[in-house]
Amino acid sequence: MTAQGPTDQARTYPAPDTFKARALVDAQTYEKMYAASVGDPDAFWGEHGKRLEWIKPYTKVKNVNFTFGEVSIKWFEDGTLNVAANCVDRHLATRAEQTAIIWEPDDPKTPARHITYRELHEQVCRMANVLKSQGVTKGDRVVIYLPMIPEAAFAMLACARIGAIHSIVFAGFSADALADRVNDSAAKVVITADEAPRGGRRTALKSNADAALLRCSDKVRCLVVKHTGGQTTWVQGRDVDVLEMMSHASPDCPPEEVGAEDPLFVLYTSGSTGKPKGVVHTSGGYLVYAAMTHELVFDYHPGDVFWCTADVGWVTGHSYIVYGPLANGATTVMFEGVPTWPDAGRFWEVCAKHKVNQFYTAPTAIRALMAFGTEPVEKHDLSSLRLLGSVGEPINPEAWNWYNTHVGKGNCPIVDTWWQTETGGHLITPLPGAIPAKPGSATRPFFGVKPVVLEAESGKLIEDTAAEGVLCIADSWPGQMRTVWGDHERFQETYFQQYKGYYFSGDGCRRDADGYYWITGRVDDVINVSGHRMGTAEVESALVAHDKVAEAAVVGYPHDVKGQGIYAYVTLMHGVEPTEELRKELEVWVRREIGPIAKPDLIQWAPGLPKTRSGKIMRRILRKIAENDAASLGDTSTLADPGVVDDLVENRMNKG
Ligand code: PRX
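Above: inputs. Below: predicted complex with adenosine-5'-monophosphate-propyl ester.
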């Protein structure tokens, strides 16, 4: 490797020879397969689609149009299959007694559960039959609002089994956020639990669901998993004790035949404008892609124990706790707890306890744990680990080095995987036996992925290898989202309008002289808080919904642990006193409107916001102030009232 250019001075880290010796893909194979995948996608994916079991094999592979106004994405379109049968039934012949899911509860004193493929099959069938008994049929939507318990995976697969479309709402979201998603997807059923334990505390999920359902059609049924046994109110005729019903339901449920392009799930995600949008993933292409990336990126070998620490409420949990691993007949760990409870050694204790081979987490978790020193890591036997993964945000070199040295002991390749809810699976990531890592770089594209770097303003394609601009993808891959639920226009406008002929990721990036990609973060009004995506517009609209708030503008700022923090500028209604109580009240308000992850870290009272003469808020200026970089505010002369900036700079909250 040559070291040239401003970004690739970083040292490269090839995988250790012992790792390479048994790696699934080596450097030469990567180059050959990559060339084949972009050279003839039909032939390449036609072959790799065969990793699934199809009811009716496909004869067409790729049928894609990225032209704005005509965007249409189809893969394997005339094939039929069942996703649950691929993730469960087809493994029964060879690995019925192998553990499919290891469930590690929040409280380490509660025993873990080991669920074999045979048991998984039975539970999924029972849950599917319960859904059927509630009138759920193919194409219906089911909202899942559950803690990280095996029932969440059963519910996902039960939907897939009967061809219903699930939409998981992260258990940290509020009643209002849940209601919006139930209504937008017109779901027939909500599956929830009495309570969600996390870090020794309990969230009253069912009572959130009760509050949400007041805002929904009274036809929506509520299936309740009695998980902690905590008290809940019970609405006769609407609420159903799902575990009790499962115990009577038949353990047999034939899988429904679905088309490759029938939706598998909808997952709501934040964008730069408006309410979160329902990202639609379909059955065939998504599963091929999730399974293949899971196997090759994590170098998964049969018998390995794989642990992705995400929540199933995010896409990472969909693709790399449930669908990818189970499609590969893997053993996947599902963890209910948090990294720092009962102490900062919990992740490592779980790795040692279950002899985890591949461990996949977010940089924010690493940074949070670094603050506790190395003792909690060194206490545990991590010798089972072979590979580490990172996802959700760029990993800073300090965190990378700590992860590499103290967790991986210098023996585990680190795969920094760049992808999005929209992409279904990894797009830019090292294949560990093939591509040496550079700390902070997601490295090179996965098979079939054609990243391009464009000039942000002009949209001009930058041909040179070393490049900096916005990251787009020039052609489709099977895991790509197909549409926004109920709004294909919005899908096209969001991803295909600005840079014609390309999928626009919303991220900026640099490509170094070695062709490695370095993601520099969002170029739109989306912020990344602890690896969670948050639209600034969402937080703003929650704030202005408060009757004491006249106006609000929200931006991100660098945060030591979270990556980015939420900085809110709030203009109060005339005559309202800015007090500490009000600040607290607004924090609680946003938590209630959206959920704890949206709580502003800093709220600054703003007598006025910097606006252009046409009334547009100058976010660039607000970002600079929040970043404590008032020195480079640039030209403020076009502002309607340049004086407001001085006040904001003087009273900024981020003085650190
Ligand atoms: O900005 C990128 C960042 O997370 C965004 C996608 O967020 P979400 O849809 O919630 O999915 C997160 C998990 C896949 C991207 O647009 N991002 C994700 N992974 C990385 C990353 N930024 C840098 N490096 C990564 N490895």
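Residues 269, 315-316, 391-394, 416-421, 442, 505-507, 519, 521-522, 528, 533 surround adenosine-5'-monophosphate-propyl ester (CB under 6 Å).
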